[in-house]
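It is worth pausing here to work through a concrete case rather than discussing structure prediction in the abstract. The textbook approach is simple: state the sequence, then state the predicted structure, then interpret. We follow exactly that order.
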Amino acid sequence: MTTREFGSYEEFWPYYVAMHSRAATRWVHLAGTLTGLAVTAYGLARGRKRYLAALPLFGYGTAWPAHFLIEGNNPATFGHPAWSLRGDAAMIRMMLAGRDAELAAIAEKWLADNP
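Step two, the predicted structure:
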């Protein structure tokens, strides 16, 4: 697997979105992350610290297979873990704000410019 190099998060962002070019991949990420957050919040509210593991288990446990099975690529987190976490949060915020079409356009442009 070849890891792309980026000089900044701003340069990385369109690539991150392009690695989520299919709507199904983005929605699986959203579902996994929000489920993980909900289970983690429930656990913390109940004083069960072991539920903290829910966030990475649900988040990565749904996202990574989506890359292999839906997108046909490797997760960007393998090469850029911190920026990928930031990108995931930004992508989910945009989706929750109803801006999924904007994400699709960012992905389409990056893929057209980087065959």
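Step three, interpretation. DSSP finds five helices and no strands in the chain. Residues 41 and 104 are 30 Å apart (CA to CA).
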